[in-house]
Backbone:
């Protein structure tokens, strides 16, 4: 009997100690809220609202930078968005909006806090939002990445809240046009011609509508058609001017089946003749490039810059 009473007493002491510890130390949600409040104050942020969807339980704060005018989005919908973010401690940041393109189902977006904020707070395509995501809805106690979190952008530390900016694309064609125009302006590109939706001479629909091109060196040889074999050098750049492919810059490439190329390149090469060191530059909208699928080193919905030179053509 004494042993039983002692055991009950011991369990009561442990339970009391546990309760006291829980009351003294904040849980992760309380910790995150304190971090967010401190961050808002330290950075002089105004206009941040608390997400109240689902009974004010997420702990997310947000600010609508541009209201969306497109369709309402929900978990089963496919969305295209561009993003930047950094951790509250400033040691991890992702800011290259050329590389940070995403296309997929909203219900598959990660981390969870981002998915919730797009659905519950941004709501509509075409909008832009800033989101403060608590760590328990970000990457949690483990963070992610390798190595030391003392090295900037090497590893996201655990329990880090995140500061996101999301641009939810409404119309990919309109967005591509904006990206290409901005790229031309930023890089002082002149002398390019934009292919219109309809050929003004034939009245036919242009398959490469929206693409910009410039004949750098006119050729004096064969014209290019669907049955041509084209040998050339080329470079492929993303809109941040990093090279996505330089394999053919020094090693000559041969295309014996133009129809196997992306639509922009397929149609664009027909605009130049071979010979005489001929060369053409193309600014290709994403829908005429690798589209929503992307490719190795090329994110989804990426506009591209192609440079083709030393073009020779054999017609069969």
Residues:
């Amino acid at each position: 009997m004494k042993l039983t009473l002692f055991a009950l007493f011991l369990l009561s002491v442990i339970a009391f100690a546990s309760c006291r510890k829980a009351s003294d130390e904040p849980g992760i949600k309380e910790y995150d809220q304190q971090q967010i409040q401190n961050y808002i104050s330290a950075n002089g942020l105004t206009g941040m609202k608390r997400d109240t969807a689902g009974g004010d339980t997420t702990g997310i704060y947000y600010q609508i930078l541009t209201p969306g005018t497109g369709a309402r989005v929900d978990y089963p919908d496919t969305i295209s968005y561009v993003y930047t973010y950094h951790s509250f401690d400033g040691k991890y940041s992702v800011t290259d909006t050329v590389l940070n393109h995403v296309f997929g189902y909203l219900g598959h977006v990660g981390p969870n806090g981002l998915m919730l904020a797009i659905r519950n707070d941004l709501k509509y395509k075409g909008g832009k939002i800033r989101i403060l995501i608590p760590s328990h809805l970000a990457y949690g106690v483990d963070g992610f990445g390798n190595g030391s979190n003392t090295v900037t952008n090497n590893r996201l530390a655990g329990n880090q809240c995140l500061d996101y900016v999301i641009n939810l694309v409404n119309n990919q064609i309109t967005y591509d046009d904006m990206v290409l125009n901005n790229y031309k302006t930023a890089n002082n590109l002149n002398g390019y011609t934009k292919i219109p939706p309809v050929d003004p001479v034939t009245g036919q629909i242009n398959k490469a509508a929206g693409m910009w091109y410039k004949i750098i060196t006119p050729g004096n040889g064969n014209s290019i058609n669907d049955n041509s074999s084209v040998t050339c050098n080329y470079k492929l750049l993303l809109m941040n001017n990093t090279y996505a492919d330089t394999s053919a810059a020094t090693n000559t490439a041969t295309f014996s089946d133009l129809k196997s190329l992306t639509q922009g390149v397929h149609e664009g090469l027909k605009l130049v003749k071979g010979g005489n060191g001929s060369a053409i530059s193309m600014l290709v909208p994403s829908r005429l490039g690798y589209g929503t699928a992307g490719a190795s080193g090329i994110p989804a919905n990426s506009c591209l810059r192609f440079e083709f030179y030393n073009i020779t053509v054999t017609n069969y």
